[in-house]
């Protein structure tokens, strides 16, 4: 199945809509994105948990492991590096990561195809 | 000889153990086994016989395991043996044998004094004896026990529990003369005095006199005095039951018993003897451990092995009248030239003695009264070098007795013959905690007294479990709870800044969320607390495998009106939810998308439903049977109590989920003993059981208190729950919490019944706060737009339902459509469902 390659930024929501250290799901060009806000950064990854196939990563607990910002799958608790999308518990497993930024109080996402 | 017809005479503890041991070694059933039992019930735990008076049922004492190829003939004692024809005779028929095993045990010795045949005079040997004592004690006030040994003191406690004022008469100058020395006996007597049991030492009973009703009324003693006694228990020792062997012309031991050699075989090569009836090389052993050893020897020999009797371990540790008493090795110091080290503390009422070799290097034996915590290590050290300096070993907390100093050959678990070497090997193979060691080696699975040593051996091997919660907190959940409680910290950010490091994770955040909720810190979705919650608590619903949620309204006690049942049905129909009855007498509605949850709950709350907290580590359900309101066997209102308990404890957050049940009679239809706290009705009140669970490691709850009033019961449960919430580890259920507690159930009882830590007032206040501040979480969400905001499918497309949640139909309801993800890529767990055969479920391959 092919996926649209988007090079433009899509406005998703107000920054205030995001709770610190918690995620939300967003729909960007038909792709389910998990969007997270930590104390000082925004992260976007695929919402699909690659282990179970369910679209749930936005509902995981945000935290850190050895200084790396992370989210844990709410289904079976595998932990992912929010910066790279790599699973820290299962070698070779990863989720696609996307670009996220804040402009004038608005959160914007740009899809990436790699990862 | 390795097969044929095997007849076992007797189905006591050792007879049963023998059959179990043989079956384990003879998997193909080469031996066809017939067991002839005199009693009408199969083997039960005679060591714990007295527990019958503490409310433990006959079923719980049962030791019988059915095996293929073993017939058990209950109530059919052997009457004769014809060794020429190889036949055992009973009242019913004859049984031919290729091998015959005596497991006839002992009988109670009754001294030859006048009056032992009077109504009201009993022995203390079988469940029938105990049932007869209980029945006769009704309405009587004064009892007496002849014999101040182990069994006599057990019997005295039984009479005390039956409400009788009790005297004990012992011919020797001290109590428990076989196990303890004079000073130990004196210490023991101080405890016994305090319980109101009167002891008469160094006197014999010369006659038992009847009263006007023909029943027993008094004992006459050799010092010329007399004692009032409306019920008398004779516990003056046991004698081997060897009459059958005697009649069959087999040689007996010098003091009776079926004479066998070190292979447990009699002079007749087809006949063996095990347990208390066997005089092994001339000596009978009246304890279960040597009995089990003989059972193993004969089982081994019957399959061609070469086992011999390893010598009797006469070590005993018991709790008599609430006092720990232990005796091991050469307790009386009969070895030539041996040295004693003794320790007596009248203030704490502890007595301890070690018997050492003449060079003071080798431990030979010892006696402990009042505190037996050093027993497991000391017993295992007998015959070897002292594991520490004598005074350190005898220190009241047993702190000097560390199992890490034991040699590999020392027996750690005498019940199951497990050495330190066996335990170390299991640890080297990867056993990292006590439950794993128990499963792997069987150590600690019988009497449990060696469990502290197993922990010490894990420590010694360097596999001590760190108590740190995760990389963000170096302390355990219990310590974190105290920090939060005492310092009044109410946010995670402050807690991690002051007492941890980093940003937290999926381990510590839910723990802190649970602690804050247990301490009553407002709604679980308010402020920073919301970000700490696991997804279930974040949406107040249960996440399912496809990303949808399930909904469980509270149905207290499983009692529901038809009107409310109809509402659930209508909600399920209107939202097309898969509907299933749960094991906890509730109804689970599956397949709800996040944005549907508030709509579903609006309908449920309007109809009077509340959150069932199925999503939380919290009280789930208090199951009940229908009770005396309807049931012809019920003795109390079990539904009424279940509803009251569920309403009292609803919403209480804990280290793990909490389940409960109430049964209206001893038939236990509510399965209360599989719950964290279970209640079973009695004629006069409630029995409380704690620490049960189903699940991965099923465990029956232990009896905690008996015949409680409803008020006393609730006070007890209040304290139990708050103490658990404050002190358990993360995800530790009540069973593991009690098992890991120093002193176990006894300690728990001392804390919440006797208030030994002075905590009870505080525990009661904490529960009172919970009860008064409870409010339904779902109603509070529906009333608050901020809390409702999270229930959207997509932050930028709230009107689009999650397209990945799709259903198919199975047996008339909607269920998740599997493995049809829009991106088309396989989930990495790779499970596929494959059809097995038409019309039956598919299995994962």
UniProtKB/TrEMBL annotation, chain A:
Record key words, sorted: 2Fe-2S, Iron, Iron-sulfur, Metal-binding, Nitrate assimilation, Oxidoreductase
Coiled coil: none
Keyword Cytoplasm set for record: no
Cross-referenced InterPro entries: NirD (IPR017881), Rieske-like_NirD (IPR012748), Rieske_2Fe-2S (IPR017941), Rieske_2Fe-2S_sf (IPR036922)
SUPFAM superfamilies: ISP domain (SSF50022)
One record GO biological process: nitrate assimilation
Every Rieske domain range: 10-109
Molecular function in Gene Ontology: 2 iron, 2 sulfur cluster binding; metal ion binding; monooxygenase activity; nitrite reductase [NAD(P)H] activity; oxidoreductase activity, acting on paired donors, with incorporation or reduction of molecular oxygen
Protein name: Nitrite reductase (NADH)
Protein species of origin: Micromonospora noduli
């Amino acid at each position: 199945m092919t996926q649209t390659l988007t090079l433009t930024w899509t406005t998703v929501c107000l920054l205030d809509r995001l709770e610190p250290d918690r995620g939300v799901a967003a729909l960007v060009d038909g792709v389910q994105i998990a969007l997270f806000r930590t104390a000082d950064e925004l992260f976007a990854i695929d919402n699909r948990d690659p282990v179970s196939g369910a679209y749930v990563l936005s509902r995981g607990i945000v935290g850190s492991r050895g200084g790396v910002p992370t989210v844990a799958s709410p289904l079976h608790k595998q932990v992912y590096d929010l910066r790279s999308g790599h699973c820290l518990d299962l070698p070779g497993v990863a989720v696609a990561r996307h670009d996220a930024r804040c402009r004038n109080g608005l959160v914007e996402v740009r899809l990436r195809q790699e990862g | 000889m390795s097969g044929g017809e095997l007849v076992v005479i007797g189905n006591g503890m050792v007879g049963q153990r023998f059959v179990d041991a043989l079956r384990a070694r003879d998997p193909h059933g080469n031996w066809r086994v017939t067991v002839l039992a005199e009693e009408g019930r199969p083997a039960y735990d005679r060591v714990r016989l007295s527990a019958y008076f503490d409310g433990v049922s006959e079923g719980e004492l049962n030791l019988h395991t059915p095996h293929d190829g073993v017939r058990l003939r209950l109530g059919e004692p052997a009457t004769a043996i014809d060794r020429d024809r190889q036949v055992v005779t009973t009242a019913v028929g004859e049984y031919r044998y290729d091998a015959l095993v005596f497991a006839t045990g002992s009988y109670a010795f009754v001294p030859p004094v006048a009056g032992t045949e009077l109504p009201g005079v009993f022995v203390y040997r079988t469940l029938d004896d105990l049932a007869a004592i209980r029945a006769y004690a009704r309405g009587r006030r004064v009892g007496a026990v002849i014999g101040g040994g182990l069994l006599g003191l057990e019997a005295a406690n039984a009479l005390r529990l039956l409400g009788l004022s009790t005297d004990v008469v012992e011919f020797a100058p001290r109590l428990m003369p076989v196990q303890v020395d004079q000073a130990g006996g004196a210490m023991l007597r101080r405890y016994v005095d305090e319980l109101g049991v009167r002891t008469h030492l160094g006197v014999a009973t010369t006659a038992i006199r009847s009263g006007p009703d023909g029943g027993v009324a008094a004992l006459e003693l050799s010092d010329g005095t007399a004692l009032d006694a409306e019920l008398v228990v004779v516990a003056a020792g046991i004698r081997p039951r060897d009459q059958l062997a005697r009649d069959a012309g087999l040689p007996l031991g010098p003091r009776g018993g079926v004479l066998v050699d070190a292979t447990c075989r009699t002079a007749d090569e087809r006949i063996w003897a095990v347990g208390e009836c066997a005089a092994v090389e001339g000596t009978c052993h009246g304890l279960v451990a040597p009995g089990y050893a003989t059972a193993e020897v004969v089982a081994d020999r019957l399959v061609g092995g070469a086992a011999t009797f390893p010598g009797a371990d006469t070590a005993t540790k018991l709790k008599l009248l609430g006092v720990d008493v232990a005796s091991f090795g050469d307790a009386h110091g009969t070895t030539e030239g041996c040295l004693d080290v003794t320790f007596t503390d009248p203030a704490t009422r502890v007595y301890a003695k070690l018997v050492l070799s003449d060079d003071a290097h080798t431990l030979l034996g010892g006696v402990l009264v009042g505190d037996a915590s050093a027993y497991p290590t000391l017993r295992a050290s007998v015959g070897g070098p002292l594991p520490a300096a004598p005074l350190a070993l005898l220190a009241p907390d047993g702190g000097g007795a560390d199992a890490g100093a034991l040699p590999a050959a020392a027996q750690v678990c005498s019940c199951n013959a497990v050495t330190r070497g066996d335990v170390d090997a299991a640890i080297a193979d990867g056993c990292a905690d006590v439950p794993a060691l128990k499963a792997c080696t069987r150590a600690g699975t019988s009497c449990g007294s060696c469990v502290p040593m197993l922990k010490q051996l894990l420590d010694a091997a360097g596999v001590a479990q760190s108590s740190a919660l995760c990389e963000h907190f170096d302390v355990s959940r219990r310590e974190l709870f105290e920090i939060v409680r005492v310092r009044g910290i109410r946010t995670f950010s402050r807690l991690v800044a002051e007492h941890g490091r980093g940003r937290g994770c999926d381990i510590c955040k839910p723990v802190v969320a649970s602690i804050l909720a247990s301490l009553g810190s407002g709604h679980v979705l308010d402020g920073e607390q919301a970000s700490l919650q696991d997804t279930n608590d974040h949406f107040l619903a249960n996440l399912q495998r496809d990303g949808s949620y399930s909904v469980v309204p509270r149905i207290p006690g499983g009692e529901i009106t038809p009107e409310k049942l109809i509402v659930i049905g209508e909600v399920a129909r209107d939202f097309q939810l898969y509907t299933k009855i749960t094991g906890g007498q509730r109804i689970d509605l599956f397949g709800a998308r996040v944005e549907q949850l508030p709509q579903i709950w609006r309908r449920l709350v309007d109809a009077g439903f509340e959150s069932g907290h199925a999503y939380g580590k919290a009280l789930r359900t208090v199951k009940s049977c229908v009770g005396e309101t309807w049931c012809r066997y019920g003795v109390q209102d079990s539904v009424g109590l279940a509803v009251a308990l569920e309403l009292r404890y609803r919403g209480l957050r804990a280290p793990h989920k909490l389940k409960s049940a109430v049964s209206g009679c001893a038939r236990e239809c509510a399965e209360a003993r599989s719950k964290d706290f279970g209640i079973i009705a009695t004629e006069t009140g409630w029995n409380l059981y704690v620490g049960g669970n189903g699940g991965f490691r099923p465990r029956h709850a232990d009896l905690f208190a008996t015949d409680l009033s409803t008020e006393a019961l609730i006070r007890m449960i209040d304290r139990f729950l708050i103490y658990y919430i404050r002190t358990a580890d993360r995800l530790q259920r009540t069973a593991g919490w009690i098992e890991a507690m120093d002193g176990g159930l006894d300690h728990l009882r001392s804390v919440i019944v006797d208030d030994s830590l002075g905590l009870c007032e505080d525990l009661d206040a904490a529960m009172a706060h919970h009860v008064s501040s409870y409010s339904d979480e779902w109603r509070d969400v529906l009333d608050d737009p901020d809390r409702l905001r999270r229930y959207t499918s997509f932050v930028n497309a709230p009107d689009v339902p999650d397209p990945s949640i799709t259903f198919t139909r199975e047996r008339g309801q909607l269920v998740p459509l599997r493995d049809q993800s829009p991106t088309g890529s396989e989930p990495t767990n790779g499970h596929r469902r494959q059809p097995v055969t038409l019309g039956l479920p598919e299995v994962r391959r």
